[in-house]
Structure to design on (195 residues):
């Protein structure tokens, strides 16, 4: 009879562990000595690692570069003018993913740290319109923007090759960096020479 009682107790402990494990994000750990004695008095709750919703950190940086051809008085002067007038903070960056905080913020060369839960994420930015900078550099000026992503994220483009966003996957407790780089390409820009 004692063997049947012991088997029944072990069976009930196994069922309790299974139900607790499969229905909660916590699991029950029973002290092995007490399990052998059939006592359920010493139990402790522990977090199950597979249900860990711990936060991770994603550093999002924004870089603006310039390339000039046929610049007047020089390509360097044109790019200096462009970079003085187009700042990373003029771009709104958005991170979508598992509870990302903050989810929208101004671009920064130094980066913005985003707290995010494990899983997939997407980084997007508002598109830059070159018409304003083209107008400031003269009527013969043409401009375009090419965008790339570096770090732990991968740039995604549409069927025409235009940048759409950057995507990545982050593990629990991990730290990643996603850098979005806009290269403004100017042809035939004209700016006043430095005094």
């Amino acid at each position: 009879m004692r063997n049947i009682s012991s088997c029944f107790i072990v069976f009930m402990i196994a069922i309790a562990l299974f139900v607790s494990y499969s229905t909660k994000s916590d699991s029950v750990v029973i002290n092995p000595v007490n399990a052998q004695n059939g006592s359920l008095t010493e139990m402790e709750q522990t977090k199950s690692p597979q249900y860990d919703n711990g936060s991770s950190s994603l550093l999002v940086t924004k870089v603006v570069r310039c390339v000039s051809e046929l610049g007047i008085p020089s390509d360097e002067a044109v790019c200096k003018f462009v970079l003085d007038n187009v700042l990373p903070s003029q771009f709104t960056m958005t991170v979508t993913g598992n509870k990302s905080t903050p989810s929208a913020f101004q671009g920064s060369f130094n980066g913005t740290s985003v707290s995010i839960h494990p899983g997939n994420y997407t980084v997007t930015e508002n598109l830059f319109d070159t018409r304003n900078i083209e107008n400031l550099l003269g009527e013969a000026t043409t401009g375009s923007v090419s965008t790339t992503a570096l770090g732990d994220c991968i740039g995604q483009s549409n069927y025409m090759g235009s940048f759409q966003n950057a995507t990545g996957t982050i593990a629990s407790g991990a730290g990643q960096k996603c850098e979005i780089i806009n290269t403004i390409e100017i042809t035939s820009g004209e700016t006043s020479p430095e005094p």
Summary: Residues 4-52 have pLDDT under 50 and may be disordered.
